Amino acid sequence: MAWGIDPRPLRIPAFRRLWLSSAGTAFGASFTAVGIPLQIYELTGSSAYVGLSALAALGPLTVAALWGGALADAVDRRRLLLVTGGAMAAVGAALWLTAGADSLASLFVLLGLLQGCYGANHTARGSTVPRLVPGPLLPAANALDSTVRWLGPVLGPLLAGALLSVASVTALYAVNTLILTWY
After folding, report:
1. 165 CB-near residues (< 8 Å, 6+ apart)
2. Which of 23, 36, 65, 146 counts the highest number of beta carbons within 10 A?
3. Could you give the CA distance from residue 57 to residue 65 in angstroms, rounded to a whole number?
4. How far apart are CA 53 and CA 42, in angstroms?
5. Residue in 7, 4, 12, 3 with CA at minimum distance from that of residue 130
6. 29 — pLDDT class (breaks 50, 70, 90)
7. 127 or 18: which carries more pLDDT confidence?
8. CA dist., res. 103 & res. 72, Å (int)
């Protein structure tokens, strides 16, 4: 019995690009998941508004994830990933550029847009892996993919908290934007 994850699928360039962009998306999403509620609390001093931000994120995320699966079946998945990834980078840039503004409404709108794009992107990613990797390597590819998808939301907030100890929420948005535009 072997221990560890089989890295052979990473030798396939298309899967390697998808895997690296999944890591960037997972970490970037975690940075904004820490930054937006913190910024909302700093603006309002209200935990209730922070809770409302979760509702503002849930609707677009759910709808986009459901429709993103159908859309991924109807259009070119690569193009869908590029469009939704680019849109997430654009929203990240808008958050970065407006981080000093006192507009709660714009934060809620940007949060909804970001979560909508993330929902469609995340769904398309999951359905893309089997198309990139031959059958015998699919279990290893799924293990690699799920590892990065689940470690990002665990390690991302940890890194965001460490960054917040020396920088502001603006830095979180900047790092998120740079990560999303890197791939």
Report:
1. none
2. 36
3. 12
4. 13
5. 12
6. confident
7. 18
8. 34
